[in-house]
Amino acid sequence: MTMGQLQARSVSARPLHGTLVGVMDAAGPQVWYDMTVEVALSVMAASGAEHLVVCDEDARWVGLVTRARLTAVRDSSEYTDRLRLGDITGDSGPFISALATKGEAEDAMPHGRLGPVPVVDEDGSALGILALSR
User: Fold this and answer.
1) Is 126 helix (H, G, I), strand (E, B) or coil?
2) What are the two backbone dihedrals, phi and then psi, of residue 62, each rounded to the nearest 5 degrees?
3) Sign of the torsion angle spanned by Cα atoms 64, 114, 43, 125
4) Which residues contact 73 (CB under 8 A, 6 or more apart)?
5) Which residues contact 48 (CB under 8 A, 6 or more apart)?
6) Which of 33, 39, 63, 119 could link 86 by a cystine bridge, Cβ 3.0 to 4.6 Å?
7) Can you say whether the dihedral through the CA atoms of 85, 86, 88, 90 is positive or negative?
8) How far, in Å, CA of 26 to CA of 28, rounded?
9) Is the pTM of this model over 0.85?
């Protein structure tokens, strides 16, 4: 995979000192891990977002959920109205450090994955999202 496959986007969040600024989207809506699945789907509908960055009580990234994932969880037989985002973000996948070089980010992107991968700072806060271009 080459960096040419990463989508180039502008970032509306605070600037980074690393080299990923030109290839990441803004992080998008950030929500708390104790939010219910139903409320998260409402936030997505209101914002038009396709993913939510899930944070803990210290505003550190703990996962990322997509509309498709939330819908599948809600439609499953195990769903209850008490299910929280923290209950379903255990295998949220990789993240990339904001201090990573483009080459390191390229190596960290899962081969064949088109979904978003969060970029986090040294404190664990989500700064942006990397996604492969389609």
Assistant:
1) strand
2) -125, -10
3) positive
4) 37, 79, 83, 88
5) none
6) 33
7) positive
8) 6
9) no
Residues of the chain with pLDDT under 70: 1-23, 90-93, 108-115, 131-134
- 9 closest CA partner among 29, 19, 24, 20: 24
Give how far the C-alpha of residue 7 lies from the chain's centroid of Cα atoms, to the nearest Å: 15
Gyration radius of the chain's alpha carbons: 15
Distance CA 107, CA 5 (A): 12
Q: Across-strand partners of 64?
A: 53
Distances (CA, A) of 89 to 5, 12, 129: 27, 26, 17
The per-residue pLDDT for range 25-34, each reduced to its tens digit, is 777 788 999 9
Which residues touch 133 (CB under 8 Å, ≥6 apart)?
Answer: 5, 6, 7
Q: What is the DSSP letter of 109?
A: S
The values of phi and psi at residue 129, to 5°, are -135, 135
